[in-house]
Amino acid sequence: MSPSAIKRLTVNRGEELAHHLIGKAVQRNGDQMSLKSRLADVIDVEAIPGTSASDLTYAMKAHLDFVIADEESLPRFAIEIDGSSHWANDRARSNDERKDRLCQEAGLPLIRVGSNFARKEGRWTVLEYLISNFYTWQASEAAQERGELPEDFFFSPFLMMRPENKPGEYLFDTLDADARTAIVRLWKEGTLPTPVIQWHSFNIPERRSVKTYAFIPAAPDRYLVGASEIRAFGFCGITGSELGEQLAIAETGSLATQWANGKAVAMNTKRATKALDEVKQAAIEGRCLTTMPTDVDELKLRGPQREQPPRTDGPTPGSGPQ
Question: pTM higher than 0.90 for the full model?
Fold first, then answer.
């Protein structure tokens, strides 16, 4: 057989990196991973009520980038790594929507990540964090079935804690935990007027994405504005808006540190208001995913008035969601 007729399973650096990160995450849980599995080999499309002949034809041709299965080879969830064409190409978006629908109807959790899947915040990369949340969610579901958790228990990624360096201190184990801690520290040092972050997430249907802005005042007429845009997905353990929130706040924390070091990273009020106007338009159109004021006109940037830090020399509290 000619070597030129053999194809690589991973075709670029991005797929190789994703393969490495996923492999580390799933092996810790005793699972296995397969690459480029045909959709029809993973889900039984004919068993899904209401599927069409075109759905079956599509499933015979389409594949899933990564499928994670248990020790009995039963698929647990799948992962798609979306390149730029998935954002801009109408046909690609239509195919993605069909694949999402078929996986959802078959009961196969599917996560979509973009080029930021290897972005590292704290101890996590985005991809490893999402996979960890899936396994933690699954463990909580099993515990609930065994009666070890109350029936009304609702899993949230913001419930997870990790120990800090000092005994007895804990932080929320999220992608934005370090950023929130940095913001509180800079507020106590007098660099920032407030530790309170505003954030808003909203859908962009034509891009099949979730966009999030996070705002914090830095000085009069100066705001630090973090932003994220991720592919919309229907996964277990975390929602698209929860992931977007964490990434936008993580960026805001990075900007706050740069601001403290004298970098000109803050927006003036006019520029920051343009970002908020996107949120207002989404609110008018019913696309917001976070709690909004009844009156859209009440959406305003928080002012830079100085808030006094607590008068205690005790330990700084963990930086959980506000």
Answer: no
Rounded to an integer, what distance in angstroms lies between the CA atom of residue 230 and that of residue 223?
Answer: 23
Q: Which two tokens stand for residue 286?
A: 């019913």
- pLDDT, tens digit, 9 for 90 and up, residues 31-64: 999 999 999 999 999 999 988 999 999 999 999 9
Residue 64 covered by a domain? yes
Indicate the SS3 state at residue 130: helix
Alpha helices in the chain (DSSP H): 13-27, 39-42, 53-61, 85-88, 90-106, 126-145, 177-188, 240-260, 269-284
Quote the number of domains for the chain: 2
Residue 317 lies in a domain: yes
Q: Which amino acid would we find at residue 303?
A: G
Instruction: Please report the sign of the dihedral spanned by the C-alpha atoms of residue 237, residue 241, residue 244, residue 245.
Output: negative
Does 157 fall in a domain?
A: no
Is residue 262 left, alpha or beta, with left meaning phi > 0 and alpha meaning psi from -120 to 50? Answer: left
pLDDT digits (tens, 9 = 90+) for 82-97: 877 767 778 888 899 9
Question: Do 253 and 320 share a structural domain?
Answer: yes
* Cβ count near 274 (within 10 Å): 11
* Rounded (5°) CA angle 259-265-266: 90
Tell me how crowded residue 318 is: count the other CB atoms within 10 A of its CB.
17
